[in-house]
Amino acid sequence: MSERVVDLDAQDRAILRELRRDATQSAGAIGRKLTLSQPAVWRRIKRLSDAGVIKGGRRLVLNREKLGFGVTVFLGVKLATKGGRVSLEDFERAVSAIPEVQTVEHVLGLFDYRLRVVARDIPDFERVLRRRIMTLPGAGDVEANVLLSEERLLGAGGRIGGLCIWHPTRVALWQRLDEENRHDCTA
Predict the structure, then answer these.
(1) 13-17, 78-82, 131-135, 149-153: least confidently modelled range
(2) Assigned fold of 71-146
(3) What is the pTM of this model?
């Protein structure tokens, strides 16, 4: 089932660009930058939120290292089918209750789920894996990928270490936000 695409005008795109730069800005601050009134900006943000363009509201980003979580692992989990069908809802509910599991994504491919798990160190991750994740109803094969570093691309493409990185989904999204769509990287 595909969702209806929301039509964005130039002011909507400008507001979204400002929110992308700094989501903590007030409607008044955005209005001053775009020469719009605070109520007009607030109404547009509310309409974009109600339409599902803006999801999640303000988001708190915690520094995992400062909180003692030095290791991030992406874990692919294939559900075991021994003894009959496994309830996806039961697995999702159980895995979501584990505090070290930051995200749970139901995916199509070699694995059924992709989890983002944080731990203090590798022995702590092994403990979480053995005692919590592998004991969940339906947990089968797993594959772990340890995060070495993380870069956040703000736009559709970006330059990392002199390499031009393009992501098709980001290109489509940012083209809708910025019709001029100028990037540092050329195709």
Answers:
(1) 149-153
(2) Alpha-Beta Plaits (3.30.70)
(3) 0.57
